[in-house]
Amino acid sequence: MNVKITDLHPTQLYLSEKKLQDIQMLYQSAENINVDPISILAVSNRFLITDGHHRAYQALLAGRDTISAEFDQDGGNALYALYAQVCEERKIDSILDLKDRILPQDEYEAKWYNWCDGFNQAATLLLKRKADEE
Do you know which SUPFAM superfamilies this protein is assigned to (predicted)? Predict the structure, then answer.
């Protein structure tokens, strides 16, 4: 299915400069761009990106209004909803809001992956506690 890029809500805080360059080269090298669909979840009447932030950002820069997407079948809705909440708190409400958060690959890996590890541990404990209370 195709979704409007402006309807997508990010669930990550940074983009990798290298990943964007790789995708940009793909866009420049082919007349018919065959980019894998991004993965999304429908949570609270929003489409959360679970995989494909870089592809969505590059599609927007390339002047596209829509991007191919498929629903994520791996679960994790509650965790991605927490990621989206963190993004909202940092005023990241659309894919374009990541334009000032593009980092060199080594810095991206250090900041994003380390943040994710800590956040995932805390979120897992929080979600487990909520489930136990219910």
Answer: ParB/Sulfiredoxin
Question: Domain spanning 2-133: which CATH class is it, in words?
Answer: alpha beta
Which token pair is 29?
């090298």
CA distance 116 to 123: 10
Q: What is the pLDDT of residues 88-108, one digit of tens each?
A: 999 999 999 999 999 999 999
Please tell me the distance from the alpha carbon of residue 94 to that of residue 57, in angstroms, as a whole number.
10
Measured distance CA(59)–CA(73) in Å, rounded: 23
In this structure, are residues 59 and 67 in contact, taking their beta carbons and an 8 Å threshold? yes
* In the chain, domain spans: 2-133
Tokens 């000032």 -> residue: 100
Q: How far apart are CA 20 and CA 58, in angstroms?
A: 7
Does 32 score more than 60 pLDDT?
A: no
- One-letter-per-residue 3-state SS of 21-69: HHHHHHHHHCCCCCCCCEEEEEECCEEEEEECHHHHHHHHHCCCCEEEE
